From TrEMBL:
Domain (RNA polymerase Rpb4/RPC9 core): residue spans on this chain: 19-120
Cellular component GO terms held in the UniProt record: DNA-directed RNA polymerase complex; nucleus
Hydrolase keyword on record: no
Organism in which the protein naturally occurs: Grifola frondosa
Protein name (Swiss-Prot/TrEMBL): DNA-directed RNA polymerase II subunit rpb4
Gene: polr2d
Coiled coil: none
Gene Ontology biological process: DNA-templated transcription initiation
Main location group: nucleus
Length: 121
């Protein structure tokens, strides 16, 4: 009976959402949710399954609204669009890096997104 060989695992940097240290999976999710990403059956399934916005126009409008806020990173933009928090307090509790934004400024942005979501056609 032989003993199993232990393999040396490469050290992986620890993920920390508060510091925006994200794993490779999160970058892939961000890429497939991008409107300019190439279409494949799998990516279409992911978009349809997780989409909060049912039209390309409403998704584009939300993306543009979020891009107007210069303090937001790509990750924060994707998380706000995907999770659709209603209040600044909720947003900061699920996306800790948003503490850098003033509550009033963040709330105006979230209200704009909720309005777009409510009136999408």
């Amino acid at each position: 009976m032989s003993t199993p060989r232990l393999r040396h695992r490469p050290q992986v940097e620890e993920e920390d959402a508060a510091a925006l240290k994200l794993g490779p999976g999160m970058l892939y999710i961000s890429w497939i949710l991008d409107k300019d990403a190439p279409d494949t059956a799998y990516e279409n399934l992911v978009r349809k399954t997780f989409a909060k916005f049912n039209t390309t126009d409403s998704a584009s409008a939300v993306r543009e609204a979020l891009r107007r806020e210069p303090a937001l990173t790509q990750f924060e933009t994707a998380q706000i669009a995907n999770l659709c928090p209603v209040t600044a307090e909720e947003a900061k509790s699920i996306i800790p890096s948003l503490v850098k934004l003033d509550d009033d400024r963040l709330q105006v942005l979230l209200d704009e997104i909720q309005t777009m979501r409510k009136f999408q056609s």
